[in-house]
# Entry
Amino acid sequence: MILDTKLVVSGTVPASGVITGQAALPASGTPVVSTDSIDLASVRDIGEGDDLYMVFTVVEAYNTLTSLQFDVIVGTNAALTTGVVVAGSSGAVVLASLTANAQFAVRINPQLFSKGTQYIGARYVTLGTTPTTGSVCAYVVADIQDGRKFYPSGFAIQ
# Structure
């Protein structure tokens, strides 16, 4: 997975590699959009014909909420407040999974048979009590990797 700072919509990914997160702490049921959006009019053909993903990395663990939903959204303005369409969603992610460094990849579904929408970003929806801690960094990637799976040794390959 290669990160491009121009494809970050929440938080930052500086050259030092130490990411920071957006404090996405909405009240229960109130959506909060990413601090940034990507203007697809200037970044043409982004992944045309290929699968693209938005990866959500929890930078600071969340507390007190029941679940948090990560959405990939497209809209007709940079603030992502008009013409909003959900292009992918994680569904509800329970609090126990929202620990520091947890990652969730959401496929960006293509907008087939349409002109497309100019801006893409993220949206966060909380269920339960409004959290007092928690932040997330979100960015678009072409490939996802899962280097965290480990298998037991001593098995035979046939």
